[in-house]
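[#protein-structures] MJ: dropping Response regulator here for a structure pass
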Amino acid sequence: MRALIADDESHLREYLEGQLKTVWPELRVVARAANGIEALRMIDEEAPDVVFLDIRMPGLTGLDVAAKLVESPKPPHIVFVTAYDQYAVEAFEHSAVDYLLKPANIERLEKTVGKLKARLKPSSGEAAVPAAALQALLAQLTTGGVAAPAPVAAPLQWIRASHGEETRLIPIDDVIYFQSNDKYTSVFVADGESLIRTPISKLREQLDEQQFWQIHRSVIVAARHVAGTRQDFRGRLMVQLKGRPEQLVVSRNYVDLFRGM
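AK: finished. structure tokens for Response regulator:
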């Protein structure tokens, strides 16, 4: 069996591919796309049996790609992948098209793989989702039905970072703070420091502002790890962290965030 994974976040493509290797080792991921346009081209070139489509991608969304695939004589089996389209889950639950919530856990992925294997068995006689069924689902998701509310971009859930010679996939909940330097941004977690190339200004846009506070142009701290604040001998406001010795400087532009603490 051959598969394509389409997601605009490379670390989530790699994460899903790794999970698939665990639960479906005989499946070959033959293509990886970063957007909907790339996905269509690669599907045409590689003719995968299964495609995993992120719903929100630049260029064409996963729903756009599916709408074009359903017009082909033999469309692949489609699994939608979403981080935040909770409103759409009800529609998927009652359709022949499967879905996964990011990041896909092993138990849920095993169920999806079980369904796909059943459909892909030559003896089953079950083809990919009929065009009419898929078209009905897409219409429900895009023309008012359960999909009426426009989804908001989801905050970052995972960080792909370098740690020495290895690459780590760090859950965002494990991050204590980010600190930028000349070329990299350091990601501090309980067991050490890893590095990413994302500038802190770009990173700020991807974080939940209720959970992560920017306290300096080069520092973003996880609110749940803030123990309190104090002033040092120079009169600077310092953030104290729970269970950690380092203290982080709050620049003047962000002092108001801590008024009343």
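MJ: nice. The CA atoms of residues 225 and 242 lie 5 Å apart.
AK: one more thing. Helices lie at 10-23, 36-46, 62-69, 86-93, 106-120, 131-142, 200-206.
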